[in-house]
Amino acid sequence: MTRNRIPAVARFLRRRIWQVVPVVFGIALLNFLILQLAPGDVVDVLAGEAGAATPEYMAQLRASFGLDRPLPVQLAYYLKNTAMLDLGFSFRQNMPVLQLILERLPATLLLMIAAMGCAVVSGVVLGVISARFVHRAADRAVSVFVLVTYALPTFWLGLMAIVLFSARLGWLPSSGMTDIGADLGGFEYLWDVARHTVLPALSLATFYLAVYTKLVRTAMLEYFGADFIRTARAKGATETRITLFHALRNALLPLMTMLGLQLGSILSGAVLVESVFSWPGLGRLAFESILARDFNLLLGILLFSSVMVTILNIFVDVVYAVLDPRIEL
Amino acid sequence: MYPALLKELLRNRSALTGLILLALVMCAATLGHVWFPGDPWDMVGTPMLWPGEDPANPLGTDIMGRDMATGLVSGAKVSLLIGLVSTLISAVVGITFGALGGFYRGWIDAFLMRVTELFQTVPQFVLAVVLVAIFKPSVATATFAIGIVSWPPTARLVRSEFLLLREREFIQAARTLGMGDGRLILTQILPNALPPVIVIAALNIATAIQTEAALSFLGLGDPNVMSWGTIIGNGREQVVDAWYICGLPGIAIVIIVLAFSLLGEGLNDTLNPHLKER
Amino acid sequence: MADLLAIQGLRTWFHTRAGVARAVNDVSFAIQPGETLALVGESGSGKSVTAYSILRLINEPGRIEAGKILFNGTDLLKLDDKGIRSIRGDRVAMIFQEPLSAFNPVQTVGAQIVEAIRLHRRIGRRAAYHRAMELLEQVGIPSPAKRVHEFPHRLSGGMRQRAMIALALACEPDLLIADEPTTALDVTTQAQILKLLKSLQAENGMGLLLITHDLGVVAETADRAAVMYAGRVVEEGLVATLFTRPFHPYTAGLLASVSIDDLPPGARLPEIPGTVPSLLVMPRGCAFAERCPYAAGTDGCLDHAPAFLPVADDHRVACFRTPPTPRPPLHAEATGEAAGALLPLDAAARVVA
Lengths: 329, 278, 353
Hints:
heterotrimer; B: about 280 residues; mainly alpha; MetI-like fold; about 0% strand; C: about 350 residues; alpha/beta; Rossmann fold; 3 domains; 8-stranded mixed sheet; 4-stranded antiparallel sheet
């Protein structure tokens, strides 16, 4: 029962959180490899094009990376820095990388959650409709919709949405997370953020909406043939009840699995959407660091976003275990 | 076997639609320069001419007065090239990892799977951005980066196929005949594991093309090559006034991605009939 | 006594791409209140499809083409969706072969029983849970207050089938359809479950339609049996009559190698040479003709399907070899002699050999 599962969840989280360690180690190794293979001196790479950074900054970088030492020692330095969450200093932004990332994190999380919520809810609704009326007009319409949305590039969809909904119709704002200059409080602030979230979240959600619709449809159709659905029918349950309480309830399980697998891809999508809508999150930060050739920041974002995917995955696993009693936490 | 397969593929509605769309894009990529010769970077007309406004530039011009049609033809070439080659890279890496892990199992498998999981955890596009940015944007780095970030699903698929196939009787028979591991993997198991790999490859091409477009859109495209993403990236500042500059290459991307997804779906139906829906 | 359930001329066909599979073709039989009828046959003989047809649980591409299913006089095939739903689980309940897959894996056993109760009775959740616990206790599940909150995968196979029976009994049905209820269980558990079904039937006085391919189960549990072959009932009668004096060569073949006295539960139907004809291409004549030692040389068997006719009181057969004696029927013993003369058991044994 739910009550005695709470300590189990806590224990599970404590156990799983250690999984972050090998991920951090692995990404750090990967980052180090990239830096070593990159053309030119590591410091030059990290500081961007020569001449942009001050000699003091270059010297500081050299020291912190142990660049005058043999390669294994350099690696040890790099791993040690990473382990202590010292992601270095961004010369361009004049701020520690970690601080920059943490400042941008909430916006990205908001965008991801809004988009995922949207994709899951509409994916479930469309998938259920499609499965319930399989091979009929509604199902065919949904199939075509899924096929097209699956092929739409997220960033392009975002641009087109700006043209239509912001420029032509003037319904929704096209950039940022709040209106610049407007000093709003309380409910009005939330409303403002919500209005700004709509277009980026929907643009990001579209692709996943297609994926989830297809997945829910397939899973539901499979479950419609299952023995326990026949039992429910033999009990005298209505088709609506069978669809929602029995088939859908079970179809949510593969949906959660898919969601967990796609967290990395969703974060990738956020990078693109943020750069289209000037959304002040990690993606926008990544875009800025590309423009400024601030590669130390970029590597930090790569590491941090991987860690974030791992942590979110642990949460997805907990949700899965709550949904599926057969899974022992 | 192959003509029969092709015949069945042509009878599949998804596959046929996909192949037709693909043929159109390939025509544009290979023969397009006959109608739209010249360098896509040349400024040939008045900037921001709308499609149909001037017969000399049937699809209009961009903000620098470059011909849109010429740019789109060049983009088709780039998309197909990068899509196909990067998928080849990803298939080779994925098959190698999956085959070795699934065939040898034990610690080799454990190690290879850890690496695969790591590459699955990293947000793929962010890694591609890092690779292209650090190794300097070019067609080669983009192809390589897209290939490197997209192999894990193939590896997992090949591994599970190998785990199943290595226990089958004909493999055991070949083994008792004294066939070496290398020959066993390449001539006996791999051919039987390929059908699902071909399906996933078709879908990978679609994803790769989208990734390439996204990279160029962010300004990480080859500075000497006009790709669809580049055109969209260049046009985005003026998107409100001249949406066709972003719109047309976007539609081109949709068409080609649609082509490969449909082809993949059709291949799935014909190659893995047991997976087909009722 | 009025029939509890009377099936008349039921046809359930499956419209597949390969053609029309006549899974159930002109099946008729009846069950009295409180009676146990066993529907016996090999897999693919149409016995399960018949059972599912009663509650109209046939999925596409299957369709009930013709016939009547009279339950307490009402034709279930004529009811609208709402009407049939009010019968399902309330007046007629079902239990299934695989208790694990028949339960929804993500709901507790209790919740699923409660759902069955509350679909038909206006009672509160708490009261329904209380009733669910009573039911679990009734089917012999220890510490029902705990089990009611258990998920299906946490129960053993036998316990799951008991819980499934509890679910079926939720609204005290008049008819229980049991589709191979013991096939998935081990032999000891099988006997316990059968005993439980019998005692519950004695308590509730419900009719029981038992689908099985297990002659031991039939001998132990059923009052009457109907033998199905290739979508048709070929013989129907009291179990005692059927087991000692089978008329139809198919029934005889089934029984020949097995003596009724040493039929343990779990005994499977013995093999009969030849194969069941494809349901897609049914022969014009008797479906069993190809495997029947008496059909050779008899044109009638290959040209016409035999009618299903009474040979004695409560004993009907579809076979040309049996004289379709009209009523008034022969005396039971005389019938036995007559049948014996027509179909000696040693000849039936040769069907098997």
